[in-house]
Design brief:
It is a single chain. The protein has about 70 residues and is mainly α. The chain is about 70% helix and about 0% strand. The radius of gyration is 15 Å and the shape is elongated. The two termini are about 15 Å apart.
């Protein structure tokens, strides 16, 4: 859920550029990518403490997480 909220900036910026004809500075795009990458790295490399994830391999959990972001 947190990763989805962090990654929300990129589609919103793309939607704003294509549909709403907004213009963003390169710095804004860079900030969006860095925040999304930072959240992704933080969440995928942290210890998972949920009961459901104890039965799942770390690689499978990462794959499902990345698939959900798409």
């Amino acid at each position: 859920q947190t990763l989805g909220k962090c990654a929300k900036m990129i589609p919103v910026m793309i939607w704003g550029t294509i549909i709403m004809r907004k213009t963003y500075k390169p710095k804004d795009y860079l900030v969006a990518v860095v925040v999304t990458a930072g959240c992704t790295i933080f969440i995928l490399t942290g210890d998972v403490k949920s009961k459901a994830s104890k039965n799942m391999d770390l690689g499978a959990a990462s794959l499902w997480g990345c698939a959900l972001m798409l």
